[in-house]
Amino acid sequence: MTVNVALIGVGAMGGAIGRRLLQTGNRVAVFDLDAEKVAEIVGHGAIAAVSAAEAAAQSDYVVTSLNSPHVLEIAVFGQDGVSKGAKPNTLIIDMSSIDPEATKSLAAKAAEVSLRWVDSPLSGGAPKALVGDLTLMAGGLDEDVAEALQVLKHVASNYTHMGPVGAGQTTKLINQVLCGLNFLAVAEATQLALDAGIDAAKIPQALKGGRADSAILQEYMPRYVAKDYRRTGRIDNMVKDLNGAQDLARRTNTPMPMTSICAEVHRLLTAAGLGGEDQAVLMEYFKGPEQLPNM
Asked: Are residues 159 and 184 in the same domain?
């Protein structure tokens, strides 16, 4: 069944989500301030809208994929935002990664103007989105989370309702703690193997199926060895998420020493000008701070 979707935000992640929705036969109206990114996805069959309001007005569902609560609030509630064009009772599916408390506030504000809200952040990145294999963790009312699947089934193979609004974002922070630590651990192990004269490219196969195995080991150790720095994610986005996890830890009084170290390494790389680069550039950290490049 064809679904009419408004997609607000077509960066690396939003663009991949949009392309997958188009590939699976859906109608997608898009809005983004970056005309080049809009043109790219229009080339895949999307319909360009002049505003978020116009995109929402011609759609049954609104999907947002944006970088911060501030930007998201403007996109939904600002002049020419989603709320100015969406039909009453429209379901907003927020696939951004933002603070759980901000999500609760935005969802409450949406309810005041007769809009519904599901937070459904993701794991898997753009490569998984393009093949419909994302992992999604959702927060919202039972009926809204179930209805959101009409859209999300096209991009996800694993979809779990975690609780009320904000629960999806909290789960995403936990996901990012696990991913951030794993990225750094695999990078550190790769450097040790290289320094010890081991063929690190063989390690993923050697450890496959064992307790040390992981999707990040299988995908990223070969990239670390090859210094394959193609962009499928961003260091500074990980900083944002680890900051969010640390904020949550302060509210819950949860000690997180390893997360603190991981966050500092990511901040160091960002300060060195590598914030826009992929997690693969963690290998640059092992050159020492004085040798970090500006890429």
From this structure: no
What pLDDT, on the 0 to 100 scale, is given for residue 293? 57
Query: Which of the residues 104, 172, 208, 227 is marked catalytic?
Result: 172
113 plus 197 within the same structural domain: no
The burial class, CB within 10 Å (0-12 / 13-18 / 19+), for 35 is exposed
Torsion sign (Cα): 64, 67, 68, 70: negative
Do 178 and 135 share a domain, yes or no? no
Rounded to two decimals, what is the model's pTM?
0.90
Instruction: Give every CB contact of residue 114 below 8 A, 6+ residues apart in sequence.
Output: 88, 89
Stated length of the chain: 295
Q: For the domain that residue 180 is a member of, what is the CATH number?
A: 1.10.1040.10
Confidence of residue 276 (pLDDT cuts 50, 70, 90): very high
Question: In which domain, by residue range, is 259 found?
Answer: 170-291
- Contact partners, residue 148, CB within 8 Å, separation at least 6: 61, 91, 93, 118, 120, 138, 140
Secondary structure class of 64 (helix, strand, coil): strand
Residue 172: active-site member? yes
10 Å Cβ neighbour count for 195?
Answer: 10
Give the contacts of 213 (CB within 8 A, at least 6 positions apart).
Answer: 204, 207
Question: What is residue 272's DSSP assignment?
Answer: I
Clarify whether residues 158 and 178 are in a common domain: no
End-to-end distance of the chain based on CA atoms, in angstroms?
45
For 83-99, the pLDDT digits (tens) are: 999 999 999 999 999 99
- The tens digit of pLDDT for each residue in 186-216 reads 999 999 999 999 999 999 999 999 999 999 9
Lowest-pLDDT choice from 159-173, 237-251, 275-289: 275-289
